[in-house]
Amino acid sequence: MKKKKKSKAKYVSKKKKSHAGLIVLVIVLVLLVGAYGAGGFYFSQHFLPGTTLNNTDVSGLTLDQAKSRLLASSENYMLTLQEQNYNQETIDGSDVGLTADVSDKFNSLLDSQSGPDWILNYFRDKNYILEEGTISYSYDNDMLEKIIDGLECVDPQYPVEAQDAEVVLMDGEFKIIPESVGNIAHRDVLEEKIKYAIETQQSSINLEEEGIYDMPKVYDDDEDLIAKKAACDEIVDMTLTFQFGMREETVDIQTIVDWIKVDKNGSGEYELKTNDDKIKEYVNYLSETYDTYQKPKTFTAHSGSVIEITTGDYGWKLNQETTLEKLKALVLAKQSATVELTSGSEDSVEWWERMAVGYDSNGNDYYGTTYAEVSIDEQHMWMYQDGEVVLETDVVTGNPNLGNDTPKGAFKIRYHEKDATLRGPGYATRVAYWMVFADDVGFHDATWQSYFGGTRYLTNGSHGCVNMPLDQAGKLYDLIYDGMPVFVY
């Protein structure tokens, strides 16, 4: 069998097609190179599409054309202020005498486009804020200041300050109320933004986006605020009650929430702490309301007459430092509590620097029904027990002619002892019963007195003490107690 010969015509055809494809490729490459070169030449003299200078479109323009457009845009420039509630205010360039001029720097703006990199620049962002000094904008600063002063956003008719987000008690539960922006523009910031906008030919400023309004400092996503809400949730039902005799002070959660703050501890965890400044304010309130020490007092004498007493050391006085610490401990315990502050218990005593017997319904000193009464004019004393006179006797008080007046006022028995020696300038006297109610002044027996009462105190009065017959002093000693009220008038 004879072998078939390959077709020579077909081979020649394939070879011709290969040459034609190569020719086409060369032509395409030549065209691309030519286009690339033409583009490079063109964009060495024209701005690339999408180019803006100081927010003015200069796409495809030459330097001279771009210069003319920039200068012309300044003549028609208007800045719009986007304000709250869709309000707008405008500043017209002509109202501030706006003009523009270019420097030699402008002539080099196309340098970055020329050369082999123009094709890369074609696809890059081409929104340029010109380097300072390339084009300068001039305006009358006094005219601009006057316009800014007259803006409604700077001086609103109904100014509203920004409100921080906060934790509030609503319908028995704590909620975070979101922040709100004020409607007062910070003038200095606004002026700075307006001047920058003019110099860069921005067409508008959004005051809220730029933070020009009075802005809140705490937002509803603030970690500390969220942590405070969590802490408040733990004490939402907490109430503190303080009893002052017949009166009562109740501190509800609305007040307690002002007494707390939430801070991170050393481990980075949030924990409840006390706001000492706020608690001190409450301590001051308690002191102003319930301290009676060195305040005028009224006393009903044996005759039924009401006497105002303005001296003496009888009365209540809170220990403010201790009270602060005890209130802080109660808050941190996160539990409701009732504290009787005039019960005389060991805990209640710790709250006070000075104590009396009690309070009446008006918050005045309550003297109780067991006390001693001394009338200097009558030279007589009475001892009341459970509201009844259980002892009364004539006395001899201090000699006023020698400057030894018995001090008048409301006092209390400081201490009492038997067989004491009373000492003073030039004397040392032994007494059987010594019951002190003021500085080195008290009740005691005086066997050297020939009689008691009358006017004897004017000539043979004591050094200030209340002298009593021996037997009556003994009876008084058995009736009194330390802290018992003593009224001298």
Q: How would you describe this structure in keywords?
A:
489 residues, alpha+beta, rod-shaped, single chain, 12 helices, L,D-transpeptidase catalytic domain-like, Ubiquitin-like (UB roll)
How many domains?
3
Radius of gyration: 48 Å
What's the total count of β strands?
Answer: 30
Structural class category: alpha+beta
* Overall average residue pLDDT: 89
Main sheet strand line-up: 24-23-22-30-25
Model regions low in confidence, pLDDT < 50 over at least 5 residues? none
What report would you give on this structure?
With 489 residues, this protein is α+β, with helices and mostly antiparallel strands. The chain folds into three domains: 52-206, no CATH class; 223-365, Ubiquitin-like (UB roll) (Roll), CATH 3.10.20; 368-488, L,D-transpeptidase catalytic domain-like (Beta Barrel), CATH 2.40.440.10. Helices cover 29% and strands 27% of the residues. It has a five-stranded mixed beta sheet with strand order 24-23-22-30-25, with helices on one face. Strand 20 and strand 21 form a beta hairpin. Helix 8 packs across helix 9 (320-333). The longest helix has 35 residues, at 8-42. The radius of gyration is 48 Å and the shape is rod-shaped. The protein starts with 7 loop residues before the first helix and ends with a strand. The model has no long low-confidence stretch (mean pLDDT 89).
